[in-house]
Amino acid sequence: MVETLTPSPSIWRLNPRRSIPTLFTSYKTLFALLWIVVFTSIFVWNRNFVDGFLIFRRPVTARSLPRFRPVAFNLTDFGAVGDGVTVNTLAFEKAVFMISKLGKSGGGQLNVPAGKWLTGPFNLTSHMTLFLDEDAVILGVDDETYWPLMPPLPSYGYGREHPGPRYGSLIHGQNLRDVVITGNNGTIDGQGQRWWKRYRQKLLNNTRGPLVQIMYSSDIVISNITLRNPPFWTLHPYDCKNVTIRNMTILAPLFEAPNTDGIDPDSCEDMLIEDSYISVGDDAIAIKSGWDQYGIAYGRPSKNILIRNLVVRSMVSAGISIGSEMSGGVSNVTVENVLVWNSRRAVRIKTAAGRGAYIRDIKYKNITFENVRVGIIIKTDYNEHPDAGFDPKAFPEIRDISYTSIHGEGVRVPVRIHGSADIPVRNVTFRDMSVGITYKKKHIFQCAYVSGRVIGSIFPKPCENLDLYDEQGTLVKKSVSENASDIDYDI
Ligand SMILES: *[C@@H]1O[C@H](CO)[C@@H](O)[C@H](O)[C@H]1NC(C)=O
Ligand SMILES: *[C@@H]1O[C@H](CO)[C@@H](O)[C@H](O)[C@H]1NC(C)=O
Ligand SMILES: *[C@@H]1O[C@H](CO)[C@@H](O)[C@H](O)[C@H]1NC(C)=O
Ligand SMILES: *[C@@H]1O[C@H](CO)[C@@H](O)[C@H](O)[C@H]1NC(C)=O
Ligand SMILES: *[C@@H]1O[C@H](CO)[C@@H](O)[C@H](O)[C@H]1NC(C)=O
Ligand SMILES: *[C@@H]1O[C@H](CO)[C@@H](O)[C@H](O)[C@H]1NC(C)=O
Ligand SMILES: *[C@@H]1O[C@H](CO)[C@@H](O)[C@H](O)[C@H]1NC(C)=O
Ligand SMILES: *[C@@H]1O[C@H](CO)[C@@H](O)[C@H](O)[C@H]1NC(C)=O
Ligand SMILES: *[C@@H]1O[C@H](CO)[C@@H](O)[C@H](O)[C@H]1NC(C)=O
Ligand SMILES: *[C@@H]1O[C@H](CO)[C@@H](O)[C@H](O)[C@H]1NC(C)=O
Ligand SMILES: *[C@@H]1O[C@H](CO)[C@@H](O)[C@H](O)[C@H]1NC(C)=O
């Protein structure tokens, strides 16, 4: 299991140093020559691979995998062993190192074939495609001594669970461009079980690491694979731009898998999340942007995010959340065509005094609840703080939120919007809502400090805080009690 960072022969066999004595006085010349040899070898090897394939036309060959980059490697080229026991960190690192030299010529692809590829954390590089074939499983080493510690995220000040440094992620990237993680539904499995247990037993001194974390990067695509059993959050794009997450399966146990959020867009802009199935032990999706005074100082919002065509499940938390860490602001989020089933909560906004910033221009469309306890939630007293240094007067602003075509059945509390005098919820719109309920009809559309409107007929009957309009948009009845409070957490 133990490995060192000493380069193994496979990568260095191309090194001409041993056979050329003292001919080269300058390291620069030697280095240039070394790279010429390496590149020639790569191209010859690639051509041979393709040619060999064509010439021999073996009747039974490995299916050729789609090629997204001019050069493709097989993880086994770097000495990896897919037996689920050998630790292959070095093979991944060598592959990434090779690809990091190919950026100018379109980058490189690393194919992970069928097998169980145990590895410690490793970093990606720009212009790279990581392709996981069918039945390929990347398994994270679950012994924390393999996991490097990294500084806290600047917008959190802390490692979320413990002060000070945090564990990095299994698959990590920083300051990258043009990265693709995809495949024929191969799997990245964080083997979180040991982490969850040690977290609950309070044996960890640092915050657990996410499964995949990409930071300060742009033009990222993650698609067509399965992610499961993360030690902590599953997929964490942090301060990124132009991220597409498509056709994914994200799985963790529904209980006793603490903080296994599915996807946490954090201070990101221009993101698309679509066509995926997420069933996890915390929020399926949680849009964030930093924590209290640290997030306010960092000041990077999450915005322009489109989430659509998902089926999600969360028994502990919620399907789609915004917050509670949102101190850089969250705006222009659309959530549409989402089914939330057998869950505790469906769509939730959570924040608290101390967060500052705003949540605005949020649109929910065509959301279906199937057997959920609480459908729509806005909670403004989610009082979890990094330390006592937050400003209790930093009130977030919450406004311009619309719920259109909300349907479903088996819902206990369809709506609970709990604003306060300090954090009122402004300009909420409901239009076309009919939800089958499982409880008495009174006090199930719960409101406090909410202003806004209901357009057309909706079921169940809305709270009195909202103005009523007909289908044509004509005011029927103006509310006189936007600050009335009818909240009951016991239902
Ligand atoms: C990768 O290498 C392994 C072992 O040599 C082989 O079984 C597999 O078919 C290769 N995959 C591709 C896509 O070349
Ligand atoms: C990945 O890169 C970051 C930033 O350079 C570094 O802090 C971290 O230790 C690296 N992780 C691994 C596993 O090498
Ligand atoms: C989704 O990914 C799977 C492989 O994981 C592939 O078979 C399927 O065709 C993809 N679907 C779409 C719509 O991309
Ligand atoms: C991908 O694999 C997961 C986990 O095994 C499975 O639930 C899902 O249906 C598969 N997706 C496709 C498109 O085959
Ligand atoms: C946590 O700290 C304690 C006390 O310093 C130490 O004994 C223990 O080994 C540490 N645990 C880990 C996982 O680093
Ligand atoms: C976003 O990233 C994708 C994938 O790398 C790329 O094709 C596209 O051009 C990028 N879009 C913008 C606006 O940069
Ligand atoms: C995902 O799979 C679908 C269907 O096979 C394919 O059209 C699409 O290009 C794949 N996406 C990526 C990035 O591999
Ligand atoms: C809002 O986000 C969408 C993506 O969901 C984007 O197309 C649109 O341009 C954004 N609107 C503004 C005003 O930035
Ligand atoms: C609403 O969302 C569901 C998925 O939850 C989808 O099947 C349906 O086509 C959507 N309806 C419209 C009108 O887009
Ligand atoms: C209320 O919110 C809607 C979007 O839901 C927006 O179009 C409208 O401009 C907002 N009204 C005010 C007065 O801000
Ligand atoms: C309701 O409370 C808000 C915030 O505290 C306040 O701005 C508003 O004037 C109040 N509205 C009424 C009708 O009292």
From TrEMBL:
GO biological process, one term: carbohydrate metabolic process
Domain of life of the native organism: Eukaryota
MF annotations from Gene Ontology: polygalacturonase activity
Family the UniProt entry places it in: Belongs to the glycosyl hydrolase 28 family.
Transmembrane stretches, start-end: 27-45
Keywords assigned: Glycosidase, Hydrolase, Membrane, Transmembrane, Transmembrane helix
Any single Pfam family the record assigns to this protein: Glyco_hydro_28
Protein name: Pectate lyase superfamily protein domain-containing protein
Originating organism: Mikania micrantha
